[in-house]
C-alpha cells in the first residue's frame, strides 16, 4: 500500500519506500485491507494545501514525514460512499485551514488507487457521468425560456451549470430528486456551513447562498414542473440556502397549491427541524418526506457545531416525532467524521435517538470540514473509539428496521399508499 503524494504543481505520485497511513480523528493509524476499496468512479483526487504526507518507511518501520517539498493527497468521494479514515498528514502551517471538503485516505496498491471507504448505497443514480452536459444545457435553456420571470429557475441554473449540483440538475432534467430552495436566512450558525461563512472564519464557503425571497408562485412553478411522474421528488432545503422552515408560510402555501393541482410525486424537506411549530405547519400541509441534518445526538457536540439560535436538540427531536406520528417518512442527514462519530458515547446516543424518533433512514454524509478546526471545536472523547466500520455494523445490528444509505429512498408502504391514492383520484 504505497503512500500517495503530490508535488507543488499538483502532479500525483506513489512512493515505493513508504506505506500510506490514515487518520481517525487526531490519531494516525495503519489502514487494514478490509477498509480499502478501489477508487470509485466519480471520485476526485486532490492535494491538501499546506500539508506534509506521513507514511511508514518500509525498511525501518518508522513513521515519519516524507522528506521533500510534497503535499498529502486525499480523495473526495461521490455520494453513496462512506469515508472510514482521513488522509495521513501533518499541517506544514498550523495557521492554515483546509477548504471545506470531505477528505478520505488514499493509497496505491495492485496497480491502482484505493480508498478507505465503504459503499453504503447504490451509486448509480448519483454518479456524475449520468448527468449529460449537453442534455442539461438543453433542459436549462428550455425551462428558462418557458419561465422567463422565475428567479428560482435562474438561480438553479447557476447551481446546475456552475456548481454542477446534481439535485439542481435534476430539476432541469425532470428526473429523480429535484431542488426548490426558498430561504436566504438561517436559525443556526453552523461551523462548517457551505453557503455562508463569517469573514474571519479562515475558510471561505465553497458556494454562494441565494439572496432573495422567492414568491409562492415561483416555488409552485418549480414544484409542478418537476412533479410529473409518480416517483419524482422535489426537495426544500439545499446547500445554496439557509434553513427552509424560516420561510414556512411560503412553503405551506406552495404545498397546498401544488397538492390541489396534482398528487404526483413526493414532497421532501431537508431541515434542521429546530422550528418545531413551523415544521408542524409544513407537515400538516401535505409533506411526504423529511430529512433532518444532524452531526450528533449529544447536546454539547450538537451545540458546538450548529450554534443553534432559539432552539435546542430537544426541539429537533419533537419535530421528528411529530412528523413520524403524522405518517411522514423521516430520516437524518448524518454528518460523519472518523474518530468522532464512531466514539462509544456518540453511537449509544444516536441509537437511542433513532429509536425515540422512529427514524426510517440514516443518510450517511461525509462531513466537509478542516479536521483540526473541527476537533478543536467539539468535546473530547469520553469512551472507546470503535472505528467507522464497526460503528456501521453496530447500527445495522441495533437498528434493524432503519436503512443505512446515502440518499432519499421511498419505502414500499409509502409508494403503495400513493399508488392507491392516484388510482382513487
TrEMBL record:
Residues forming the Radical SAM core domain are: 172-411
User: Pfam families, alphabetically?
Assistant: Radical_SAM (PF04055)
GO MF annotations for this entry?
Answer: 4 iron, 4 sulfur cluster binding; lyase activity; metal ion binding
Q: List the cofactors.
A: [4Fe-4S] cluster
Q: Give a yes or no for keyword GTP-binding in this entry.
A: no
Q: Which UniProt keywords apply?
A: 4Fe-4S, Iron, Iron-sulfur, Lyase, Metal-binding, Pyruvate, S-adenosyl-L-methionine
What name does UniProt use for this protein?
A: Pyruvate-formate lyase-activating enzyme
Amino acid at each position: 500500500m504505497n503512500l500517495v503524494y503530490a508535488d507543488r504543481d499538483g502532479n500525483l505520485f506513489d512512493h515505493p519506500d513508504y506505506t500510506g497511513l490514515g487518520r481517525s480523528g487526531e490519531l494516525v493509524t495503519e489502514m487494514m485491507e478490509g477498509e480499502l476499496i478501489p477508487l470509485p468512479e466519480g471520485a476526485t483526487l486532490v492535494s491538501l494545501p499546506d500539508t506534509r504526507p506521513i507514511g511508514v518507511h518500509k525498511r525501518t518501520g518508522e513513521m515519519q514525514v516524507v522528506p521533500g517539498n510534497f503535499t498529502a493527497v486525499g480523495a473526495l468521494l461521490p455520494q453513496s460512499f462512506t469515508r472510514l479514515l482521513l488522509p495521513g498528514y501533518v499541517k506544514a502551517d498550523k495557521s492554515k485551514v483546509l477548504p471545506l471538503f470531505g477528505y478520505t485516505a488514499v493509497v496505491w496498491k495492485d496497480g491502482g488507487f484505493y480508498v478507505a471507504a465503504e459503499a453504503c448505497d447504490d451509486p448509480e443514480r448519483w454518479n456524475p457521468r449520468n448527468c449529460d452536459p449537453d442534455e442539461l444545457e438543453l433542459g436549462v435553456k428550455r425551462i428558462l425560456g418557458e419561465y422567463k420571470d422565475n428567479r428560482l429557475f435562474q438561480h438553479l441554473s447557476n447551481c446546475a451549470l456552475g456548481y454542477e449540483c446534481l439535485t439542481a440538475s435534476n430539476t432541469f432534467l425532470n428526473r429523480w430528486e429535484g431542488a426548490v430552495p426558498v430561504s436566504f436566512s438561517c436559525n443556526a450558525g453552523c461551523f462548517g456551513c457551505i453557503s455562508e461563512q463569517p469573514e474571519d472564519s479562515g475558510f471561505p464557503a465553497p458556494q454562494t447562498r441565494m439572496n432573495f425571497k422567492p414568491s409562492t408562485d415561483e416555488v409552485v412553478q418549480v414544484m409542478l414542473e418537476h412533479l410529473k411522474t409518480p416517483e419524482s421528488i422535489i426537495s426544500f432545503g439545499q446547500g445554496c440556502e439557509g434553513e427552509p422552515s424560516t420561510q414556512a408560510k411560503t412553503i405551506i402555501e406552495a404545498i397546498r397549491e401544488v397538492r390541489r393541482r396534482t398528487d404526483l410525486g413526493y414532497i421532501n424537506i431537508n431541515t434542521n427541524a429546530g422550528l418545531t411549530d413551523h415544521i408542524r405547519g409544513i407537515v400538516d400541509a401535505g409533506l411526504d418526506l423529511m430529512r433532518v441534518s444532524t452531526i450528533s445526538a449529544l447536546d454539547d457536540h450538537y451545540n458546538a457545531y450548529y450554534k443553534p439560535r432559539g432552539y435546542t436538540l430537544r426541539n429537533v427531536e419533537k419535530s421528528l416525532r411529530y412528523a413520524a406520528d403524522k405518517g411522514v417518512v423521516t430520516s437524518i442527514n448524518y454528518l460523519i467524521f472518523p474518530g468522532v462519530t464512531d466514539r462509544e458515547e456518540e453511537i449509544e446516543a444516536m441509537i437511542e435517538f433513532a429509536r425515540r424518533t422512529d427514524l426510517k433512514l440514516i443518510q450517511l454524509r461525509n462531513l466537509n470540514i478542516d479536521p483540526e478546526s473541527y476537533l478543536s471545536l467539539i468535546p473530547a472523547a469520553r469512551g472507546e473509539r470503535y472505528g467507522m466500520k464497526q460503528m456501521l455494523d453496530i447500527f445495522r445490528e441495533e437498528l434493524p428496521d432503519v436503512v443505512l444509505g446515502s440518499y432519499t429512498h421511498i419505502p414500499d408502504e409509502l409508494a403503495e399508499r400513493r399508488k392507491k391514492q392516484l388510482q382513487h383520484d
